[in-house]
């Protein structure tokens, strides 16, 4: 019983900070993609996914703040280089975004196996963050198929 109580009091592991940095990077990446693809029909779907990532950022920041941790303000990452222009730019961008989403889904699944995360944090990941990310993959795959 004391072990369980101690686990609940442990500060958030690096896992939460890593997930937050990935979500911040996703927001930056989607904003960059929206700038490059301004006026394209895929804009509405990409904008909604960007909003979803912004919501995930807020959830993760809240989890970190609840544990008394300072949440990073930036991802310390960078957007993927997409050197293609014209019609192929859309396809290359959406492929890169889909690959990033797949990596984010895997990161959330790995987090669920982290013994340092509390059951409450894992429930939030499972019911909100992971589910949201999993929904982005088929959306982007549909854009690739119709592209």
Automatic annotation (TrEMBL):
InterPro entries: Ferritin-like, Ferritin-like_SF. This is DUF2383 domain-containing protein. The lineage of its organism: Bacteria, Pseudomonadati, Myxococcota, Polyangia, Nannocystales.
């Amino acid at each position: 019983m004391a072990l369980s109580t101690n686990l609940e009091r442990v500060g958030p592991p690096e896992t939460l900070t890593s997930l937050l940095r990935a979500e911040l990077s996703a927001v930056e990446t989607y904003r960059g993609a929206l700038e490059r693809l301004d006026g394209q029909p895929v804009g509405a779907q990409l904008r909604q996914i960007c909003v979803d990532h912004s919501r995930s950022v807020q959830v993760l920041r809240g989890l970190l703040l609840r544990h008394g941790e300072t949440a990073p303000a930036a991802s310390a990452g960078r957007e993927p280089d997409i050197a293609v222009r014209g019609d192929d730019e859309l396809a290359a961008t959406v492929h890169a975004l889909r690959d990033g989403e797949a990596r984010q889904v895997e990161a959330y699944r790995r987090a669920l196996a982290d013994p340092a995360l509390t059951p409450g944090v894992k429930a939030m990941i499972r019911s909100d963050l992971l589910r949201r990310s999993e929904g982005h993959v088929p959306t982007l795959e549909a854009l690739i198929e119709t592209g």
